[in-house]
């Protein structure tokens, strides 16, 4: 019994050691990469490869529990896919979603076809090459979003276009996962007969795929209408929490409920025969349509960064250098072929469907790598029945190609804009007009929000944090002056009511950088913080000042000492409640006494 009890304890200890080794190595390598002004994600992958080499070197003497860590990584990957889906800004693509999705589907299918032929040229069978071509046609959403955010290009034309194509690719992975059983049957038939054996009847496989896709579609339809209602109920319960302060508890309840939704979606898609990562991604995508998206994205941002570190580090763990060293030449050639073909085919598709040549170049380079769902598809291809489509050295080589594309692609992003500048003289193709979405560039039109859609922010405006009596009074004055403004409020009922009235209002916490970013804090004329919470006010001031050094920031504070702290945090003006109360009280009291006793009461203090 003692030995049985000791085993789990040792296993937990080994897992902890494995996590420590992974995180310490990842932090060290990522710090070095940041110091050298390089992208962090390749650093995580290299850190994982170093840990793999270290584990191989000392495995006979120590046990660091990397197998258990990979199980933790699977859970982290599910949550990472949820945060990626949640972070996608659907609202900026609403008016042009059909055009962008059509472009994304066209480019993805074209890339898959070309890469299918290329994989066959490397010696893979037609079914295996098809699976590889589909997997490699998916680009990395995590790398793309990180680069666009760091370069502040997420809201630019090419940023919106890249995100739209990436969403289309991720959704197409549903169909690709559903096709794997049919491809596996084709592979099995080829092995059972001759190499030229005809593909089997795909009718049965197509029916199973349609059943699975129907189940996913049903989940999406239910989630599209049920999730907003669930989160609305939870937010209302939290806003009426035991603390008595409106909106205090709703943040945690909405966050926990959203995590539960993500895991439930992951389990549901697993039961339908798809990957759990896909279910989590779709759950995040559905929550991106709700008013709680911005607040949730900000709350999950630190967790997302940690999950990304774990995910890409464990991807690096899958690089077993001794096993793939014999195939190093084909792997390097495969990476070169992959990126050249993807960039070329994507450029041709984007340009041919109406874009200018410079925009097509930037989009193609940003989407020139493989992606997270590439790993999901390759893993699924290695687990199909009656026999795996890929296994052994070919599977390991394909994973290595994906990983190396992760590492190399960020180094190519810096060349995208200079190369695009050289192609300014090339316009869109003569047979096609420019897509309507691409004419918008970086401009945004102010419009009253509809339903749960987040408001569109004007270029210059005022942000009001809190919609209590002070916030309402300020908003009324701005309405009279016809000054555009956006309200940030944490009470869900207030948000719903004001949206119905046509006001531009966001659900969220003013201290949340993601919320301030969505409200337009970088380009706002002023941020006015009206919430009666001095500590939250100080955090909000620091956050807003970090986003913009020139925006005028005003706040309210309870005491004179709080005003000094607000100025130190970066505020330009602070209204002190005790000073304002003293002035108002003095004026009102003397007015009342004067009305009771006559004007001599006012003259008496002056005479003394």
Describe this structure as you would to a colleague:
This protein is mainly alpha-helical and 608 residues long. The protein has two domains: 2-421, Up-down Bundle (Na+/H+ antiporter like fold); 462-596, 3-Layer(aba) Sandwich (Rossmann fold), CATH 3.40.50. The protein is built from 23 helices and six strands. The longest helix is centred in the middle third of the chain and has 37 residues, at 203-239. The model is unreliable at 1-11, 242-249 and 434-453 (pLDDT under 50).
Low-confidence stretches: 1-11, 242-249, 434-453
What's the β-strand tally? 6
Question: How many structural domains can be distinguished in the coordinates?
Answer: 2
Helix-residue proportion:
55-70%
Class derived from helix and strand content: mainly alpha
- Number of DSSP helices? 23
The average pLDDT is 78
* CATH first level of the largest domain: Mainly Alpha
Q: Which characteristics define this entry?
A:
608 residues; Na+/H+ antiporter like fold; six-stranded parallel sheet; 23 helices; elongated
